[in-house]
Amino acid sequence: MNVYGLIGYPLGHSFSRQYFTTKFQEEKIPGCQYRNYEFEDLAAGIAALKSDPQVRGLNVTIPYKEAILPYLNTLSPECREIGACNCIRVAGEEWMGFNTDVTGFTRSFSAALKPWHRKALVLGTGGSSRAIVYALRQLHLEFIRASRNPAAQPGIIAYPDITAALLQEYTVVINTTPSGMFPHAETCPPLPYEAITPRHYFFDLVYNPSRTLFLEKAASQGAVTRNGADMLVIQAEESWAIWNR
Predict the structure, then answer these.
(1) DSSP notation for 33-92
(2) Cα separation of 71 and 57, whole Å?
(3) What are the C-alpha distances in Å from 237 to residues 9, 48, 56, 92?
(4) With 70 as the cut, is the pLDDT of residue 13 above it?
(5) Gap between the Cα atoms of 211 and 225, Å rounded
(6) What whole-number distance in Å separates Cα of residue 183 and Cα of residue 11?
(7) Sequence-ordered list of residues with C-beta below 8 angstroms from that of 16, at least 6 positions apart, any chain
(8) Residue 245 has what DSSP assignment?
(9) Is 220 helix (H, G, I), strand (E, B) or coil?
(10) Core-most of 30, 57, 168, 229, by most CB within 10 Å?
(11) Is 203 in contact with 173 (CB distance < 8 Å)?
(12) Strand order in the sheet with 2-8
């Protein structure tokens, strides 16, 4: 049996196990199983996984994308620069870290990108945010990041600094925070939504619910909106390709 799985805590919102279980059935891939590893104690959980010879590949989600790094033997260039890992290839005792957020986001996000979308406002500063910033650099988009607790460093602002005037300049807004994610669907990042226009493009990494309050408010102002569902599918297939190299 080849075992794959998702490491995180909690995992009630995850789609990965259902996606891969369906993939194995529909594509008639034998001898494979995908499991959820809901570890409250990461160190103990990793020790158990490393003692299981059936484990071939793992995905990693909140809150362990950064905490997983010390347990890996090698890192891909993207993983090393971003400082976060969401995909692990297991080959014997060798655990190799990758970051599929970049590929998943770039392919999904680019589909609705317009020539006037030159500057992006990235909400959040965690591991997913750093992957998005990495992708934006590759796409040659300028960006600033916003945080509830901004660090004293360039390029990071506080939410009260996001004014209507700023949104006129930054016509791409990307939410990398869990705000609006089930079961807290009634929440959304604090923005001057009344300043949004049809020239804006709002992208939310959240996929459950499919239309977050963040996207709903933007769409009501005529903005183009996109959620994280396509990004997840792209990431899943990229993980599968990495595991089977």
Answers:
(1) EEEEEE-SSHHHHHHHHHT-TTEEEEEE-TT-TTTTGGG-SEE-HHHHHHT---EEEEET
(2) 14
(3) 22, 26, 15, 22
(4) no
(5) 9
(6) 12
(7) 6, 34, 36, 59, 232, 236
(8) -
(9) helix
(10) 57
(11) yes
(12) 32-38, 2-8, 55-60, 87-91, 94-98, 74-75
Task: Provide Rg for the chain, Cα atoms.
Answer: 18
Beta-bridge partner residues of 2: 32
Is residue 225 helix, strand or coil?
strand
Read off the pLDDT of each residue in 182-200 and give the average, rounded to a whole number.
Answer: 95
Rounded-to-integer distance, Cα 191 and Cα 212, Å: 14
* 2-99: CATH topology: Rossmann fold (3.40.50)
Question: 31: which 2 tokens?
Answer: 């001898």
- Decide whether 2-99 matches 102-230 in CATH topology: yes
Task: Look at the block and give the residue holding tokens 């976060």.
Answer: 84
- Kind plus residue range of the DSSP H or E element containing 32: strand 32-38
Task: Respond yes or no: is residue 23 known to be catalytic.
Answer: no
Fold classification of 102-230 (topology level): Rossmann fold (3.40.50)
Does this model's pTM top 0.70? My answer is: yes
Catalytic residue, candidates 23, 28, 50, 65:
65
Q: Which two tokens stand for residue 145?
A: 């990041």
CB 225 within 8 A of CB 202: yes
What secondary structure, in 3-state letters, does 112-147 show?
A: CCCCCCCEEEEECCCHHHHHHHHHHHHCCCEEEEEE
Q: Which two tokens stand for residue 104?
A: 């998943």
SS3 154: coil
The partner residues of 156 in beta bridges, in order of sequence, read: 145
The tens digit of pLDDT for each residue in 50-104 reads 999 999 999 999 889 999 999 999 999 999 999 999 999 999 999 999 999 999 9
